[in-house]
Amino acid sequence: MKISLKWLQDFVDINDYMKKPEELGDLLTRAGLEVEEITNRARDYEHVVIGLILEKDKHPNADKLSLCKVTTGDGVVHQIVCGATNHQANDRVVVALPGAVLPGNFTIKKAKVRDVESGGMLCSYKELGIAKESDGIVILPTDAPVGKGFAEYSGYDDVVLELKVTPNRADCLSHYGLAREIACVVGRELKPLSSKLVLSNDSTKKQISLEVSNPEYCPRYAGRFIKGVQVKPSPEWLVKRLESVGLNAINNVVDVTNYVMMELGQPLHAFDAKNIEGGKIVVSNAQVGEKFKTLDGTEVSLKGTELMIRDASRPVAMAGVVGGQNSGVSDSTTDIFIEAAYFLPMVVRKASRSHGVETDSAYRFSRGVDPDGTVRAMDRAADLIVQIAGGTAFGDHHDFYPHPVKKSLVEISVQTVSDRLGYPADENKFVDYMRRLGCQVNNGLADNKKYGILPPTFRFDLEQDMDLVEEYARLNGYENIPESLPVFAESPAFQDKVFTLNMKTSQIMRGQGFSQAFNYAFIGGQTQKKFLGGIEGLKAAGFLASEAEIQVLNPLNEETDTMRSSLSIGLFKNLSNNFNQGNHFGRLYEMGQCFYKENEEYKETAHLGLAAWGYSTHLWNQTPTHPLVFEVKAAVEALLKNLNIGAYSWVTPADRGEIPHFLHRGQFAHLVVEGKKVGYLGSLHPVILDDHKIRVPGAMAELDLDQLYKGQPRPSRFETLSKFPAVERDFALVMAKSVRVGDVVREIRKQGGGILNSVDIFDVYEGEKMEAGKKSVAIRLTFQDKNATLQDVQVVEASNKILETLKKQFSLTMR
Amino acid sequence: MKSMLQTKLDTIKEQALAQFKAASNVKALYDLKVQFLGKNGSLTEIMKEMAGLSKEEKPLFGKKVNEVKGALEQVYVEVEENLKKAEVESKMASEELDLTLPSYTRPVGTQHPVYKVIEDIYGIMSRLGYSVRTGPLIEKDYYNFEALNIPADHPARDMQDTFFIDPTHVLRTHTSPIQIHSLEREKPPLRIIGTGPVFRFDSDISHLPNFHQIEGMCVDRKVSMADLKGTISFFVREFFGPGLKTRFRPSFFPFTEPSAEVDCSCPICKGKGCSLCKHTGWIEIGGCGLINPKVFEKAKISYPEWQGFAFGFGIERMGIIKYGIDDIRLFPENDVRFIRQFLP
After folding, report:
1. Which of A288, A399, A641, B219 could form a disulfide with A304 if both were Cys (CB 3.0 to 4.6 A apart)?
2. Chain B: residue nearest A573 by CA?
């Protein structure tokens, strides 16, 4: 909110801060009213003065420039080159002299323009930052005093604060309110509002009748009739004040209602009394489906929860939000009815939010307008309207206020203040602060140690003892709160298991050369569908997913409209962007939540995703040839090993429809851990690589972390080290290409018995020396006994048993 | 007078010594050893010729032969050692490597700065006895708002533009619901930190619609603003480095009272004024306050028997300040050139 310091001066003496507004800004910020920006017009226009053009000649070296001799009243004649064409000798103009810094940080210096000395600039309104566009330089009236500072002359000598007012401080959403706050913080006097309002003996009530049928939503409603106004543009002082706080002038009546809102914080509405049909105002709820056209012509369909101001036949305003087109003040208006009310904050907010109509009025009502200030604001407006627009203000005004709003007494002891703040609070200060805040202080409570504090009606936020503790802390300065560390009086607490395991997983992934990524939890629903090709691929890999995805009701755009089912979409996007940024090698992992619905409930499940593309820089004389997907597989297996998961296998699905669309049909496997599918691994589909112009191999994996974390942490178990020699046996097995080596190895382990220590594959050959459709796999078996030296016969027996089974099961032969 | 045999022995010794010393490699030397000292070598041969000597001469000559044998073996060992040394040297000379050539780069993974900040904060706060809690990202309106003293149709809701899943479920707008879950499930005293992704309907050059927060809560018998200030100052010094100052400013959060915004003196310019702190010397890092009794009331925790404070920081913002990151939009892009800058 914009606050004009000159305007504030009407209510509190802050003359001492006009030259140093930063200090006032700091003071307010430290009192909880954050000043975000200070616009200091007076400073902008330093060295900008009114000048008189004595002579105007052509620039000797440029046809389009003129050379002017200008006096600024100090006896010096300034020679100034000017590019405008709308000025003559004897014109009074605005001169920026050397040293001036115009808006936009434009510094004026003595300079040579086409070899001619120029000592300043003749300014346009655009250059002065007053207008967005201007046609030539400013030509002032002939009575403009030469030599006078432009700021003072034009009235653009104000300082404007941009204030961030928190929702609890609605009382500061006006100049009067902020002046009251400054008076309280600094300890100064708040000046009263003066009024010259003279009322006629005529009765408002006879002109317009009032009926409030929902007093719960409208606790107070006041109105006054003014006859015979002349609607015309507002006087300059009013226009300037509205401009200074960012409002455009409309006409004198509307401008006064806006002015009073900015001054006192009470939104007002002026009706054209002749358009109030039946001479009757009714305050009641809207009817469902009823249509209402707002001031700017937008038609809204009412929901029934809005509070409406109606006349005898139709709605004329949405209470506290916006007036109706049918009853606003126009140039032909002569009689007006001024409304000042206190509407329930939540009612106004709901109406404003549900129709997307955000007005200064709704903003203030929904935060809370002082219910005690209603009539004062109405009469302030009546006073100004009569002064500016003429007319007669009628007496006998409406003031429907059956149950005056009463604040509750807050009981508090000074000891509570001390305890909560952590330092001894001073009793005299406490009482002084409470009084400065406008509270009534009673100390006659039964419990002598407690004060009864009655906060003023404009402070909606003072309801309980803690609110007063904050006021004490604030007025005494947060900087005076000491620092201490609380003594630890609790027993050790449990730690979130998943957080700890995630730190471990993260560390393992980094050890495998993968870097961590983070993607948004929402993605484009269409993108996800296209990328995965439906959720079958996820379900087949053991993930929890639902056909119906969880949608965001109000997404930013279609790329954020669905809660993700998988991490792979985001990671692939990262992979693609990275490659196209010139990062031809990378390894990423992400741990994050994925979402699904179950029995109409929203569920979350933690996934781990991996993405790899390109090869790391190898030695200068080597080119890597291994399939990249094995690097990803190695990282996954490292995780399994570190989680102490031994019983796992990789399984190729028989049904290729179970492979998510983005992965390679022939380079894909499911991970099975302890009999349950927990994820997938695969190379990227060649078409997707091509579509995204990715020219290096890519591979990805995704795992269900919730599954992997079952039974974690699994502690390590010590096994005795064998002191006896190991025996190695190598075999070359010839089998059909379609046979999965993993299946063969699993069978070997099964048959190998207790003395089979390890199974290693050291060569796979599929070249031309092989029979078509066959491959040769070289296997090294290592046998070792923990308790004795192995006998040859034991090794032979074990090997034979393995080979016999393999021959039967996989129809393989020995080479 | 020298016997013939003696002359022969002397000759063998002379020849052997000369040839041993001249041997060019270990293999040649070994061949010479066989030639002179081997089973069928010269010395063995000369021993056979001893048959013609007298009973008295035999042992004397035998002793001489053994002396020569011993001397030759000694020389052999010496020469062999020298030759071996020379051979290894020449092998190494031939194996010379240019170690200025680039090495094999073992790819090292790094942590995303968001999670690095989270783990760093966890590390600091755990020393003060705080342990971690997490919570769902899709929250009931009650936990995200109502329980935190933000009723429906309250202007405080405007402070947090919200993504809705349905009229009663939102993407959590802050990590504070974690506090409520903890208050409901556990018994005070409590010291917890809650962390994770949060969502706001806001996307521009300085806001992400999905960012991260960390939240701390302490509930105990007696907790004051001074305790809160001390805790946060400790945290700021540990996280950003010693010598940093913290400043509390009054503010408003519906779930705390009194509330404060926390500024720290700018770690980049040390408070002198720079573009990061917009030349104020101070940087806003988060909000905090004493837990509003209304929050305790909703969670059925008895106040003032139990009191507490809470604080919250934006993780990306902490990262921006600590590392001098100039654009928040880099966080979700996951450019590896960005992520690999954050060393353990």
Report:
1. A288
2. B333
DSSP string, A469-492: HHHHHHHH-GGGS--------SPP
Nearest to A167 among B158, B218, B224 (CB): B158
DSSP letters of A519-531?
--SEE-HHHHHHH
CA-nearest residue to A351 within chain B is: B153
Contact status, residue A49 vs residue A72, Cβ threshold 8 Å: yes
∠ CA(B127), CA(B129), CA(B130), 5° rounding?
100
Which residues of chain A make contact with B201, given a CB cutoff of 8 A?
A: 554, 556
Which of B272, B339, B161 is CA-nearest to residue A509?
B339
Measured in degrees and rounded to the nearest 5, phi and psi for residue B45 equal -60, -45
E strand or H helix at A435: helix A427-436
**Distance, in angstroms, between B136 CA and closest chain A CA?**
7
Beta carbons within 8 Å of A521's beta carbon, 6+ residues apart? A563, A564, A592, A593, A595, B137, B171, B197, B199, B210
Contact B125, B216 (CB under 8 A): yes
Mean pLDDT, chain A cut into blocks of 10 residues (815 residues total): 94 92 92 90 85 89 88 86 88 90 84 87 87 86 88 85 93 96 94 91 95 96 96 94 92 96 97 95 94 92 94 95 93 96 94 91 95 96 96 96 93 94 95 95 73 94 95 95 82 80 95 96 95 93 94 93 97 97 95 95 96 82 84 96 92 88 95 96 96 96 96 88 92 92 92 91 89 92 92 92 93 87
Rounded distance between C-alpha atoms, residue A168 and residue A257, angstroms: 24
Task: Name chain B contacts of A709, Cβ cutoff 8 Å.
Answer: none
3-state secondary structure of A319: coil
Residues with Cβ within 8 Å of A333's Cβ and at least 6 positions away in sequence, in order, are A229, A231, A253, A272, A274
Is A287 within 8 Å of A274 (Cβ atoms)? no
Which structure tokens are listed for A455? 């906060």
In degrees to the nearest 10, what's the CA dihedral of A101, A107, A112, A117? 20
Residue A24 to residues A179, A189, A432, A761, B272, Cα–Cα distance (Å): 12, 16, 22, 78, 21
At A749 the three-state DSSP class reads helix
β-pair type (A515-516, A586-598): parallel
| CA atoms within 13 Å, Cβ hemisphere of A71 | 10
DSSP A523-591: E-HHHHHHHHTSSHHHHHTT----SSPPBPSS-SSGGGSEE-S-SHHHHHHHHHHHHHTT---EEEEEE
